[in-house]
Amino acid sequence: MNGLSAATFRQLVQDKVEVVFDDGIVPLELVSVKESEAGKDFEHFSLVFRGDGNPFLPQGTYWIRHERFGQEPMFMVPIGQEHGGYRYEIVFNRKKTADGGVSDE
C-alpha cells in the first residue's frame, strides 16, 4: 500500500473500485474519505463505499482494484444498509516515518 494516502483516495470519490474475490468482481462506489486526528505519529483515515447489495460482502480481506493504484488487499467491513444496498468501510491507521511518510508495517 505504498503511496496510498487520504489524498490519493480523495481524488477517487464518486469513482468505482472493483472488489475482487473467489466468486467474481463487485463494483463499489467510493462515497467519502474521512480523516481524523490520530496524533502527530499516526495517519488515520477511513473510506466509505456504497454497493448495490448484490452480493452482500461480509467482513473480510478483499483485493481492491482501481486503475489509479492497481490491486491491494484491504480489510473491509459492512457498516449499514441503505436503499437496497450496503455501505462498507476500510480503515487505515498507520505510523508515520521520520521523513513524514507512512510505514506499511
TrEMBL record:
InterPro entries: DUF6916 (IPR054209). Residues 4-92 form the DUF6916 domain. It comes from the Bacteria. It comes from Paenibacillus aurantius. This is DUF6916 domain-containing protein. Pfam families: DUF6916.
